[in-house]
Amino acid sequence: MIDHTGVTVSDLQKSRKFYEQALAPLGYAMLFEVPGGVGMGFGEPPKPDFWIGAGTVKVSQHIAFRASSRAVVDVFYRAALAAGGKDNGPPGLRPHYHENYYGAFVFDLDGHNIEACCHTPP
Fold this sequence. Notes:
- With 122 residues, this protein is α+β, with helices and mostly antiparallel strands.
- The chain has one domain (5-118): 2,3-Dihydroxybiphenyl 1,2-Dioxygenase, domain 1, CATH 3.10.180.10.
- 20% of the residues lie in helices and 34% in strands.
- Strand 3 (39-43) and strand 4 form a beta hairpin.
- Helix 1 packs antiparallel against helix 2 (70-82).
- The longest helix has 13 residues, at 70-82.
- The two termini are 27 Å apart.
């Protein structure tokens, strides 16, 4: 079981705004700021499980967040685009993964592939 993960971002404050808006439909909020302005943790209260850290982005990452419904995936996608993300695959079924895989993909401000997905039937 994975406890937490994270990505490096080039502008911590711009990325904070992006992730606060993009992850809000999933129930995530910024929960902890590392002293010195070097990073912050997001998650469902009370525990952060997704971290962003200031630095030089050398490799883009793919992070997928579980959504409770297909409607939440749709809202995530719209929120992430409104926050400055770039489309990398609109909400829809991805039957090549499995019959009920419903996901949406957005590139964040640094090119990380951020996904929300739901595995349950409609």
